[in-house]
Each structure stands twice: as C-alpha cells, then as structure tokens.
Amino acid sequence: MGNWDFARSVGGIRLLADLGASHGLAPREVLAGTGLRQRDLDDAGCVVSAEQELRLIRNLLRHLRQVPALGVAAGLRYHYSTFGSLGFAMVTSRHSRQALDVALRYFNLTHAFTRFEATDSEHETAVTIDADHVPEDVRRFIIERDAAALVAVQRELIVVSDALRRVELPFPAPGVTAPYERAFGLLPRFGAGRTVVAFAREQMLLPLPQANDLMLKYSEEQCVRILERHRVRMGLAAKVRERLACNIELGMENVASALCMTSRTLRRQLTQEGTAFSAIRDEARIALAEEYLVVLKLSVDETAYRLGYLSCSAFITAFRRLTGETPLVFRKRLEREASGAAGGR
Q1: What is the number of other CB atoms lying within 10 angstroms of the CB of residue 306?
Q2: Same domain, yes or no: 59 and 120
Q3: Nearest to 143 by CA among 101, 98, 195
Q4: Is 327 part of any domain?
Q5: For FRET with 277, which of 1, 57, 196, 215 sits at 20 to 30 Å CA-CA?
C-alpha cells in the first residue's frame, strides 16, 4: 500500500476525540495543536491531514499513557459505517475476502497509517501489517489501533463468531494482557517479528447477508469520487495552511516563494480551489488563538500580539467575526464547560 500521508475524512479523528472524552479529557486537550475545533468534528464534509491525526494521537498518549491497550480500545471503536461509501462497498461484497480486497483497493479512504498485505493459504487469510514507516513515538498505538479496527470490522461482516485465528504483535508482552484477550477473544503472541492478523479462510468466503453486485459497483464509483474530492480539498490550500501553522507571520509573498511560485499564481490557484490567502490565514489565526487563550491561558493582548494583529481591538473584531464571540466570552464558555465535565467525573 502507499504512504500514510493522505487526506482523511474527519470521522477517524472524531472517534479518537470521543475516546479521549471517555477518559475525561476536555476537547481542548485532545485537539491542542491540531488546528481543529470542536465544530470541525461535527462537519461531515471536513477533511483532515495525516499530520493532524498524528498530533491528536500524541495528545492522547501524553494524557492517557497509563491506560493499558489504549490503541486497541481506539481500534474497537471503528465500524464499517465509519468508512462511509467504502464501508458500504465492503458490506455489499460477496464475502469478507472480497470486502478485504475492496478495502485494500481504496485504502486511502481508511484511517490507517500502516500498510496491509493480505495472503491466502489453504486454511487462513493472513493480513500482515507493516508499520516500519510510522513515527516511532506513535507506532505501538497505531499498530494496536489498526489491528483492532481490522478485527472489529471483520467481526461485523462475518456471520460466525470464531473466524479470528491468531494475532501476532511485534512488541513485548505488557504486564497486563487481559485487555488484549478481551478485545481479540484470544491472547496475541507478543514479541513476534511482524504484526499479523489471521482469519479462517473458509469463513472469510461465507456469503455476506447484504451482498449486492450492483450496489457494490455504485459504492466503488462513490469511493473514486470521494478520493478525488479529498485530493482537491487537500491541495494547495492545505499546503498554505501547513506553512502558516508553522509561522503565522508569513505573508503571501513568503508562502508563494516557499511553494516555488509567484504570489499571483498562488492567488489564482487558491481562487480555483474556492478560497483565498486571507481566509486561510484567518482560519489559522483563530485556531491558534483558541489554543493560546484556552490551553496556554494567555491574555487577549498577548494573543493578539503573537498572532501579528496591529491592535487588540483588531484581533477582537476579527475573532468575533469568525466565531460569533469575543475572545473572553469564548474562553469563559470553554472553562465553564470543562469545569462542568470535571465535576461530572
């Protein structure tokens, strides 16, 4: 499979944010540094980058490192419906082995960071999961998550309960293995040379209840269209957002130069994508402003200064225009919500 750096629907990040919330984390703690806001998670059309998802995963690990098998818990939250049209293509396949092939064909509509390779023997269909290219600090979480998500989705598709035959994980056995046994229904072999999830081949070939060749064809056509939309949504505008996230003070000339084009070309191509440099910069500023105000607890004056506004009043005006609230009202509301969530734990 290809590299993990592809555009993703917001659904995967939403599941991870919900995992954090289930452990008492506030949205600002989960989303810190991602450039995303809570309302983005509620936008079904929102497309995110792999780097944004990695940042959110790192936030979870920083706050919840003591939780055993955290990646497995994340993976079990995935369902075929999580993947939209791809999930519908899977469930309308003739059997689970074909559904697996469909998933591999449109792998960039999943939320995986690993690479999957499926092989068949007389008795098994084994999926080898390659994570060598994944950043080391998140590798274990992602291996656990992607393996558990594979198992969770296959369990929804296969009409029998004992199709999973073995799970091999490349890291040493943890002190507590019960969460793994509960999740997989068997004890994985830890310390293996690679990650493998194997299913009984005979059961992978059982007919699926909702198999429908016509709907499968339609769903695959939708998958192609969605991949193209993701490509457009994560085009030049996404590159501009990444540059501004690293340095909000960059102007259009600086960004255009870094992208090896003139500012005129940059302006024209952004217009073709339905946006403008000023709009992207406003979005980046507001995302940073929310982090400065709520997470770092900076004053409004300091936040305005860091974001490059000429005056505090200019920042307040811009913030109200883009969010419907003043910076102080926004911060107090989130603090109240966080306080209420903490009181209910």
Answers
A1: 17
A2: yes
A3: 195
A4: yes
A5: 57
Q: Please, what is the end-to-end C-alpha distance for the chain in angstroms?
A: 42
Asked if 227 and 108 count as a contact pair (C-beta separation under 8 A), the reply is yes
Same domain as 192, residue 92: yes
Would you say residue 3 lies in a domain?
A: no
Specify whether 323 is located in the same domain as 247: yes
Per-residue pLDDT tens digits for 150-172: 999 999 998 777 899 999 999 99
| Residue 120 and residue 79 share a domain | yes
- Cβ atoms of 243 and 250 closer than 8 Å: yes
Separation of alpha carbons 12 and 79, rounded Å:
11
Q: In whole angstroms, what is the distance from residue 302 CA to residue 291 CA?
A: 13
Long-range contacts of 226-234, Cβ-Cβ distance < 8 Å, separation of 24 or more: 226/84, 226/85, 226/109, 227/106, 227/108, 227/109, 229/47, 230/6, 230/7, 230/8, 230/9, 230/47, 230/108, 231/7, 232/273, 233/7, 233/47, 234/6, 234/7, 234/47, 234/49
> Looking at the 3D structure of the chain, how many domains does it have?
2
The answer to whether residues 114 and 41 touch, using CB atoms and an 8 Å cutoff, is: no
**CA-wise closest residue to 260 among 246, 243, 248, 282:** 243
Same domain, 106 and 206: yes
Tokens of 249: 């003070």
Q: Are 208 and 91 in contact (CB under 8 A)?
A: yes
How confident is the model over 181-218, as pLDDT tens digits? 999 999 999 999 999 999 999 999 999 999 999 999 99
Amino acid, single-letter form, for residue 215? M
Domain presence at residue 157: yes
Residue whose pair of structure tokens reads 């559904």 in the numeric block: 99
CATH (domain of 180): 3.90.1520.10
The range of the structural domain enclosing residue 280 comes to 235-343
- Predicted model pTM: 0.72
